[in-house]
Every structure is written in structure tokens, then in C-alpha cells.
């Protein structure tokens, strides 16, 4: 019979090993893609209307994970059509709906025991005290309908760096009171620092509201680029914790965890120490 040339079997085995390594490397991405295909349509209202609370936060007044929440919006999605029917200031949630003293919070137990002393049911500005965003998201999801809002499926936290990244998709924004258009290049610096030295408090609050409203109006009224382009722009913001996502649906929350957007404290085994910067005095000196 034929005689196998020396080394042929070794080359075949090496090729098989290489294919197996490539398959193993590709499996996580394949599983993530499969999960996304199954879960994402419901997020955008394929199974009926979905609603999301958007928390606009800033680290210039530090809280445990995502910074002080000054403004909010409500996003509604039906069959892929996204609208923003409500936009307002956090104070509205503190004053609206069920009287603050009568609001209830069922959990998480750790959040209630650790952060309840900061008036968790009454002071929305302090709900982000916890460094664990799934806990914060659960609390906001429960309290929003009690604060004058409608029931929501989850929470999206967005800070100035994330807003600046979103400007890559919508282009420059002219904001009354700001001398030059805000762009993907200058918006974060302006919101994190320059606005505090250039504008009085009443104008400064309006600037953030106008910018956030304009960005989300353009996003919901236009078309985003291909998913790959979106991932390239928003990926660094997600990895940096500037965009955080929470869903009360376990499958959706698992997807957020898989893409690193859930903002959860890492699982630990044994003793651990964490250092968290937090300031509830309102002096806006905590820029990081």
C-alpha cells in the first residue's frame, strides 16, 4: 500500500488543532450573537410596547457607580419605532406621584439596608449611591411608577462621555447659551467642567436638558448606522461604565451582562475591599 510521508500526520494533527482553537475562540461570539438575535427584538418592542427610563448622570457630583442623576427621560418602543414621550428633571420625580413617605421599596435587601438612610424612596438624586447598577436599576424600575411615571421594563444610565459618543451619530448640536456647537469632541469636557465656570446654575440645568433632549430626539427620529459601526463608537463608552443597562427581564439582563453593560459589582470569592467615591453635599467638585 501507499507509504505515508514522514510528518504528514503531524501536519494534519496540527491543522485539526488549529481549527478546534478557532472554533473554541468563536463560540463566545456565536453564543452572544444568538442571544442578541433572540432578545434584542423584544427590547425594541417586537412583542408589544417596551418602555425604558433613561437616567442622565454626571460624575462631577459623585455617587457610588454612575454619578448624580439630574435629568431623566422615558423611551417607548413599538415594533422598532422609538419615541421619547417624556423628559424632565429629577426634582419632578421626587415631587410627583405617590407622596414620598408612602412609596414602597421591596428590595434589593442589601440596597435597602445600606442606602435606605439616604431617603431612597424620596430622593431620586441619591438612588445612585450604590456602586452596583443592577440594584440601582431595580430600585428605579420599582419607584418610577410611584413617582408619576408609567411602568418601565428597565433603566439606561447615560453620562456626559456617553452623550458625547452619541453625538457621533447625530452631529453637532447648537444649544442656547453655549457659544459654540457641542460635538463629539468637545461635549464631554463642556458638561464635566466648562459649564460650571461659564454658566449660572439656572442656565446650566437648561443646557443639559436641551442637549440630552436634542440628542435623543435625533436618535429616535433617524436611522443608526450598521451594528458594527455602533459597536465601534459605543463600545469604549460601555467598557468605561459611561452607559449602563438594567432590565427586569432575566434574559435581557443576562445579555447586558454578556456585553459588559450591566454595571454590576464583580463576583468575588473570599474577602474583598472596594473603594467608592461618593458626595451628597452638592458642591460639584468631584470631577474624575
Query: What radius of gyration results from the CA coordinates?
Result: 23 Å
Structural class category: alpha+beta
Number of helices: 9
Q: Which regions have little confidence, pLDDT < 50, spanning 5+ residues?
A: none
Helix percentage = 40-55%
Mean pLDDT: 82
Largest sheet: 5 strands, mixed
Strand content: 5-15%
Count of DSSP strands: 5
Shape: globular
Termini, distance in Å?
74 Å
Strand order of the largest sheet: 3-2-1-4-5
Instruction: Write down the secondary-structure element order.
Output: HEEEHHHEHHHHEH
Structure summarized in a few sentences:
The chain is of the alpha+beta class and 288 residues long. It is 44% helix and 14% strand.
General description of the model:
The protein has 288 residues and is of the alpha+beta class. It has helices at residues 8-43, 90-95, 109-115, 133-143, 160-170, 187-198, 201-221, 227-239, 250-258; strands at residues 50-58, 68-78, 81-89, 154-158, 243-247. It has a 5-stranded mixed sheet with strand order 3-2-1-4-5, sandwiched between helices. Helix 5 (160-170) packs across helix 6 (187-198) and helix 5 (160-170) crosses helix 7 (201-221). The protein is globular and about 80 Å long. The termini are far apart. The model has no long low-confidence stretch (mean pLDDT 82).
What order do the helices and strands come in, and which of them pair?
Elements: H1 8-43, E1 50-58, E2 68-78, E3 81-89, H2 90-95, H3 109-115, H4 133-143, E4 154-158, H5 160-170, H6 187-198, H7 201-221, H8 227-239, E5 243-247, H9 250-258
Parallel strand pairs: 1-4
Antiparallel strand pairs: 1-2, 2-3, 4-5
Helix pairs in contact: 1-9, 5-6, 5-7, 5-8
